[in-house]
Design brief:
single chain; 397 residues; alpha+beta; elongated; F-box domain-containing protein
């Protein structure tokens, strides 16, 4: 802009010289040339002065402007970082990432996350996250019968809740830790904000917490009942069980002939889920009789008298007395009679062997030797190994 101003001034001065009359003398020519020279010098001076003044101003302004720019940019970046921190959330992660995180949480961690907010509560109490934990922890001892009893229990709880309109006491997430047996998680949750919710009583999470707390008695079977009493070696009996979180063991209730027997401190490895749904006082319908042959592993129902419930006893199919036991010549599998052997007893014991009719087998026996009921053939090596691990250290009488 300044350059343009200087040029205009010079042009005006020069143009005025052209407006006069033509100069004939040498003095007029000299004045004319002098005026042109002065305009050029003035223009050069002004341009030089402006350039030098600008450098001086720039040198004075740099130390001030640079720190201001740095401070401004630093302050704005901090403000942006704070705003980003305030806006960032776990729920901003992609759905697949969240699912991967939740699937790796333990039951205790899921309970803690469920107390953070409504969105996390809905995710962390969903059945698909708890199915894996249920299977890993309780799959070996919980069968179809136990699940049916839980559904009945949940339905009864729901009906009683709906009927009591004045109290309206649903199962709240705050009460989870009245059920949760691990004390190390409770204080952390209780210090958090009071996020309340209604947990469906028939959810898998509710079942898991009820089992862990010992509040839900469930049906299962116990190997070698009554602490391995000699009269129950290599047997498995139905019982109602409750978990004790303090000792990581179970309490069992047996119901023989009208009186209730209890047993404490039962380890996990002595329990199993019932392999069939047949109640302990009902004869099991045998569907394997025509398939039995020597060497097969079996379980058979047996009870001391008709007032007792059945227990399942381990045995093997033996050879008939008329058979020499050589496989190539054995025809025991085609005979109507089947020999069952219980080799934990000595050869002279009355409990060592029994004979059943594969075509007409029902309950067989008497008051002296007990009554033999239904039979199941063991096909899985895992079941057979489980029985062999409990083999007594000495032969029984």
């Amino acid at each position: 802009m300044l350059y343009l101003l200087i040029s205009c001034v010079s042009f005006i001065l020069l143009s005025k010289s052209f407006t006069h009359k033509p100069i004939q003398s040498w003095e007029g020519k000299l004045k004319y040339l002098l005026s042109i020279w002065l305009c050029g010098e003035l223009s050069s001076f002004l341009v030089s002065w402006f350039y030098k003044s600008r450098l001086v101003l720039d040198s004075l302004r740099v130390p001030i402007s640079l720190p201001l720019k740095k401070m401004t940019s630093s302050l704005s970046s901090k403000v942006e970082n704070v705003e980003e921190e305030e806006r960032s959330s776990l729920l901003d992660l992609p759905e697949l990432t969240l699912e991967c995180i939740f699937e790796r949480l333990s039951p205790a961690e899921l309970c803690t996350m469920a107390g953070v907010c409504t969105s996390l509560r809905e995710r962390c109490t969903s059945d698909h996250l708890w199915e894996k934990h249920m299977k890993q922890r309780w799959g070996g001892v919980l069968g179809d019968v136990a699940y049916r009893e839980w559904r009945c229990h949940a339905a009864s709880t729901r009906r009683s809740t709906l009927s009591d309109q004045s109290k309206k006491k649903d199962l709240l997430l705050d009460s989870f830790f009245n059920l949760w047996p691990l004390p190390w998680i409770t204080p952390k949750f209780e210090k958090r904000s009071k996020v309340r919710t209604t947990l469906p009583v028939d959810s898998i999470m509710a079942l898991y917490l009820s089992l862990e707390s010992g509040n839900f008695w469930f049906p299962a079977q116990v190997y070698n009942r009554e602490n391995g009493h000699v009269g129950f070696v290599l047997s498995c009996y139905d019982a109602q069980l409750s978990y004790d979180p303090r000792t990581d063991t179970f309490q069992a209730r047996y119901s023989p002939h009208g009186r209730r027997t209890t047993e404490d401190n039962i380890q996990w490895d002595r329990l199993r889920a019932p392999p069939v749904d047949t109640p302990s006082h009902i004869l099991h319908a045998s569907d394997c009789l025509h398939d039995l042959k020597p060497g097969d592993h079996i379980e058979i129902q047996w009870r001391r008298n008709r007032d007792f419930p059945y227990g399942w006893w381990y045995g093997v199919v033996g050879h008939l007395e008329s058979c020499d036991g050589i496989d190539n010549h054995c025809s025991c599998h085609s005979s109507e009679m089947v020999i069952l052997e219980f080799n934990q007893y000595n050869p002279g014991s009355r409990w060592r062997r029994t004979v059943i009719n594969r075509k007409k087998h029902r309950e067989e026996g008497n008051e002296a030797d007990g009554f033999y009921g239904g039979i199941r053939k063991l096909y899985q090596e895992e079941e057979i190994t489980s029985w062999k691990r409990r083999w007594p250290t000495r032969v029984l009488e």
